[in-house]
């Protein structure tokens, strides 16, 4: 991937990934064989941090925000404790966007590791 394409991809990913990871992400993009279409597929698997905060405010006491980002165990705990007697719910309102971006970063890392190997890329295109 060339530098201009990597910058375009970073703009697309900036909403979904933590800001501190952008340097690492750009380096990984420049060293990989990934094209924009594959990154778009990864973005479709990512969770939107804005939706996560909305779910946290509206239905966070039921654990819906945690279910949304894939934390089923914590979602069940919030559901059973009514949002940790509302304390956990308030904390999650502050933290859920960062948790969502961390979840998305793991998705991106998995995608990069899957496509960085030339044999995997060759098999996909065959």
Number of domains: 1
Helix percentage: over 70%
Oligomer: single chain
Could you give a short account of the major beta sheet? none
Straight-line N-to-C gap? 20 Å
| Rounded average pLDDT | 87
Order of helices and strands: HHHHHHHHH
Task: Supply the helix-strand structural class.
Answer: mainly alpha
Which descriptor suits the 3D outline? elongated
Count of DSSP H/I helices: 9
Q: Residue ranges: pLDDT <50 for 5 or more in a row?
A: 117-126
Total strands: the figure is 0
Relative strand content: under 5%
User: Taking Cα atoms only, what radius of gyration do you get, to the nearest Å?
Assistant: 17 Å
What can you tell me about this protein's structure?
- With 126 residues, the protein is mainly alpha-helical.
- The protein has one domain (3-125).
- Helix content is 77%, strand content 0%.
- Helix 1 packs across helix 2 and helix 4 packs antiparallel against helix 8.
Q: Layout of SSEs?
A:
Elements lengths: L2 H11 L8 H10 L4 H10 L3 H11 L4 H5 L3 H9 L1 H4 L1 H29 L2 H8 L1
């Amino acid at each position: 991937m060339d530098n201009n394409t990597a910058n375009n991809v970073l703009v697309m990913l900036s909403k979904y990934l933590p800001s501190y990871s952008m340097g690492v992400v750009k380096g990984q993009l420049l060293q990989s064989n990934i094209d924009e279409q594959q990154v778009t597929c990864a973005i479709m698997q990512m969770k939107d941090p804005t939706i996560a905060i909305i779910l946290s405010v509206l239905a966070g006491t039921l654990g819906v925000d945690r279910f949304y980002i894939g934390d089923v165990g914590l979602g069940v705990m919030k559901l059973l404790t009514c949002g940790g007697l509302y304390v956990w719910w308030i904390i999650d309102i502050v933290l859920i966007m960062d948790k969502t971006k961390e979840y998305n970063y793991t998705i991106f890392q998995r995608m990069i590791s899957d496509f960085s190997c030339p044999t995997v890329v060759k098999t996909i295109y065959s």
